[in-house]
Amino acid sequence: ALVRQAANTLWLTTIPTWALVAGSIVGVPIYISLRVVLRNWRHARAAAAMGARLAPTSKRGKLPGNLDLLIQMMEIWANGYPGDGLSETLEECGPVVDLRVMGDNIIMTSEPDHIKQILATDFQNYVKGEKFQEGMRSVLGTGVFNSDGDMWKFHRTLTRPYFARDRISHFETFDRHADQVIALLKQRMKTGYAVDFQDLIGRFTMDSATEFLFGSCVNSLDASLPFPHNATFAAPESADPVHARIATEFLGAFNEMLWHTANRARVGWTWPLIEMWHDRTEAPMKIVSAYIDPIIKDRLEKKAVSDALKESLDGKEADLTEGMTLLDDLVDKTSDPKVLKDETLNILLAGKDTTQWTTTVAVYFLAMHPHVTARLREEILQHVGPTRRPTYDDIRDMKYLRAVLNETMRLYPSVPFNVRESINATTWPSPDPTKKPIYIPANTQVPYTVFLMHRRKDLWGPDAEEFDPDRWLDERLHKYLLKNSFQFLPFNAGPRICLGQQFAYNEMSFILIRLLQNFSEFYVDTDAFRPEARPNPDWAVFGGRKGTDKFRPKMHLTMYSEGGMWLKMKAAAEAA
Ligand code: HEM
């Protein structure tokens, strides 16, 4: 009908429908191919004019538009190891490659100098882009994580001052929730069953984040913990108090929202078609809003009372704002409930799963490397002792702890893949200095992967895939990292560097110290992982992390372990 309608419009009414349909079937691919050929020719000319060359392309795709590679990537996303397919492509072409998906230039890089240019030295020439933001908008609005240009500057300026100050209150928050975590762990270990450490730390980061953001903790640590699939009993969730059930629902809705937004980024321009009849973020967003909206309303009402009182007292002694939470800080600058909601939700998204993942994998690595656990405990006992609450100064001085965290984020960065879009045509330096720079067309998606960059042997040495915190302390630091600091980027870099970096180091260090004050040995309980959540046995032949690790890493916006991270631990003698 569409073809016939178009034909009518073009006065081609005398041509029979079958001929129009056949013409379209043959004509559309020819039209697309011609467009691609013409565009590549234009790019080649523009590249030559700039003294540059086109980015290498892979020979691996056999179908038009690299459709076979696209299907393969979808399959890897669902069942493979992160980076599979791409690492082979980068091996074939070098650290930068034009993936050419369905005729579009998509120039992926794992080269520190390119990422430096995107994030820092040529920051003005790149945006997150409308394609990325559109999929997130129903959840994140125009908050700091999901905006570009002036809107991003507005949100960043609004939020930055809060993170610029070190807050003792954060340590009090961490401490209360860490106590709950330790108590839950001790309780669980008494049952003889493993704990899903990823789930437990997710509750810790959610409770800490909601408390420092809103001053109103969601209390997800009050809900019962899941038992492994092989347990013979499990406490029913319905036995939880009402507030804990609400917290579980909130946590579930938040995770679901994340999942759908990441899925939109993955399926690209097709997501509005898939969700044409039904916005998949609507239902979970309703649950999240039911929690956040009343808090914001309440805070704005308090602010109005405080302002009125201040006015009646000519501004003397009437400041009722506590100034402790991010929301307190923000209401001093804006009373727009939408801005307040977007901003706090953006920070919750940026700060919760990232710290959850790093802490989870750090403890997984401790389980796999008992000598690292012993050394880290030694440092903790030396600096903090077996029971005292750690301070900011303790954390700053603990070099081995920082090395363990950095090594964890090197091998399993929370944000393994990211993307920007070029505004104007430009060039990137050639990884091979004997060759011309690489041409980057305007309005082109440029994904970059710190996950693959952090594992490159030419950048980190032959043992790049090994977990070895000492590389941050011995001669390897000078030999590799200090040559180019842009080769380690778990927190991004440049004007959009993670706002919560220091907060994250404090939070992760705090919980690890508390954990190692109380437990001295950790074990991965493989049987507690559901069979489909265990690593594919065929991966063993690959060696490296893929062949060694005992969990199945997956990603939405951030990384996670499929089906949880089931661990057991032994209480420390000092803590008894
Ligand atoms: C291990 C923990 C963390 C890691 C690895 C991490 C990593 C990152 C990365 C890679 C980005 C850049 C995203 C992009 O531009 O595409 C980012 C941005 C951001 N992070 Fe973090 N983050 C962590 C924890 C936190 C925490 C705890 C908070 C807040 C409490 C936070 C707040 C933010 C914010 C607000 C942004 C957006 C900055 C902007 O676009 O201007 N992050 N983070």
List the helices and strands and how they pair.
Elements: H1 2-9, H2 17-49, E1 53-54, H3 67-79, H4 86-93, E2 96-98, E3 107-109, H5 112-121, E4 126-127, H6 130-140, H7 149-164, H8 168-191, E5 195-196, H9 197-214, H10 242-267, H11 271-274, H12 282-312, H13 326-331, H14 337-368, H15 370-383, H16 392-397, H17 399-411, E6 417-422, E7 426-428, E8 438-440, E9 445-449, H18 450-453, H19 457-460, H20 476-479, H21 501-518, E10 519-524, H22 544-548, E11 553-555, E12 559-561, E13 566-571
Parallel strand pairs: 1-8
Antiparallel strand pairs: 2-3, 4-6, 5-13, 6-9, 7-8, 10-13, 11-12
Helix pairs in contact: 6-10, 8-9, 8-21, 9-14, 10-12, 14-15, 14-17, 14-21
The structure holds protoporphyrin IX containing FE.
What does this structure look like?
InterPro entries: Cyt_P450 (IPR001128), Cyt_P450_CS (IPR017972), Cyt_P450_E_CYP52_fungi (IPR047146), Cyt_P450_E_grp-I (IPR002401), Cyt_P450_sf (IPR036396). Belongs to the cytochrome P450 family. It comes from Mycena chlorophos. The protein is mainly alpha-helical and 576 residues long. The chain is built from 22 helices and 13 strands. The protein has helices at residues 2-9, 17-49, 67-79, 86-93, 112-121, 130-140, 149-164, 168-191, 197-214, 242-267, 271-274, 282-312, 326-331, 337-368, 370-383, 392-397, 399-411, 450-453, 457-460, 476-479, 501-518, 544-548; strands at residues 53-54, 96-98, 107-109, 126-127, 195-196, 417-422, 426-428, 438-440, 445-449, 519-524, 553-555, 559-561, 566-571. A 3-stranded mixed sheet has the order 1-8-7. β2 (96-98) and β3 form a beta hairpin. α8 (168-191) runs parallel beside α21 and α14 (337-368) packs across α21 (501-518). The chain is globular, with a radius of gyration of 26 Å. Residues 317-322 have low confidence and may be disordered. The structure holds protoporphyrin IX containing FE. Protoporphyrin IX containing FE is lined by residues 144-145, 156, 347, 350-351, 354-355, 358, 409, 414-415, 418, 490-492, 496, 498-500, 503-504. Protoporphyrin IX containing FE binds at residues 144-145, 156, 347, 350-351, 354-355, 358, 409, 414-415, 418, 490-492, 496, 498-500, 503-504.
